[in-house]
Structure formats: structure tokens, C-alpha cells
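Protocol step 4 of 6: structure prediction from sequence.
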Amino acid sequence: MKPSALTTHVLDTADGVPAEGVTVSLWRIEEAGPVLITEHRTNADGRTDAPLLTAESFAPGCYELRFAVGPYFAARGRDAGFLDTVAIAVGLRAGEGHYHVPLLCSPWSYSTYRGS
């Protein structure tokens, strides 16, 4: 069985640069409600300095990554009125290897995919 982990990065597609300083929080979705697992800020490469989940801390289940893009775009002098927090819900299974969930965003739109 392949060990599993979770990482992310954020790209600012409006300016064509890595999005530095975006707060990324990871929530585990439980019956009683979401539980905050960890929170990071992206570095100059648009990545978090550490994985959101390591192989040691990985637990299968439903999670939500929340990206605070509104404050990022506001700090860059862009209209941040449309997108504030982008939430991406993912289901993670054990033995599926490395999960990488990038966010490509502008003040007006976003996309994601399962990266490598």
C-alpha cells in the first residue's frame, strides 16, 4: 500500500505568479461539523512549507481545503469582492499515494485538479 499525504500550492493566474501569503486551512468533515486540522500560509513559490497531511498524520476521510484568496488579492490592489474564500471538498483514501490539490485562481475564477 502506498503511503498517503496531502500537499497544495496556489497560482495567481491573473498576474501569472505563485500566490505568496495565502492562508490555507484544512478541515476534516465530521458528522458533528468541520474540525480544523491545520493552517498554513503559502511561501514565495505559492506552496506551504510543510504538507497539510504527512504520511504519519494521514487519516482517510472527507476534507475541505479553504483558501483565503480575498485578502491576498486585496493586498495586491485587486478587486476582492467576488471570491473571498475558495473551499474545495475532497475525499481521501488510504493507499492512494500522494494527494496534491493545487488552486489556480484570479479575483474572478478558480480551478483545481489532482496533481502529482
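Step 5 (inspection) to follow. The helical segments are 69-75.
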